[in-house]
Specification:
Blueprint (H helix, E strand, L loop, with lengths): L3 H10 L40 H30 L8 H23 L1 H6 L2 H25 L2
Length: 150
């Protein structure tokens, strides 16, 4: 940190409510460059007004589409079993395929959300490849369902 950076940080925080990014403590009128609550070193930086989220959102939509399809089909089985009691074995293959798809896509959604910031920081070509992979996983789920349910 240069000698002018703490002064710029203090000037920025003068009379302004800003939460510490680490602990959430209000840094209004900070006299230094460390958070008084958690002790982490702070610095002033420029950020994007609208961070690159298009790819992250597109990938999430792709994964959610596949998980939603499997979840809705499982819901359909549940409704059919409740309204028209019949042996559940009729739906065994159907349930296994859709439960498997829901689990795989659900885990992928969780991993995607946990790595959201990392995904946003990747190069555009890698973000695009990941988004295509998300949509490809959902299409694969649909293809497997279509092949095995006849």
């Amino acid at each position: 940190m240069t000698e002018t950076e703490p002064g710029l940080l203090q000037a920025f925080l003068s009379g302004r409510d800003v939460a510490c990014p680490a602990c959430g403590y209000n840094l209004r009128d900070l006299q230094g460059s460390r958070c008084p609550e958690c002790g982490d070193e702070l610095h002033l930086q420029v950020g994007l007004v609208e961070p690159r989220q298009a790819a992250a959102i597109a990938g999430l939509i792709g994964l959610a589409a596949g998980a939603g399809m499997s979840g809705l089909l499982l819901g359909y089985v549940l409704i059919q079993v409740l309204l028209h009691p019949m042996p559940v074995s009729i739906f065994d293959h159907f349930v296994l395929l859709n439960a498997g798809g829901l689990v795989v896509e659900g885990i992928a959604v969780i991993l995607w959300l946990r790595n959201w910031r990392l995904i946003r920081r990747l190069r555009a070509s890698r973000r695009t490849a990941l988004v295509l992979g998300c949509w490809g996983l959902s299409l694969l789920n649909l293809l497997i369902f279509s092949i095995y349910i006849r």
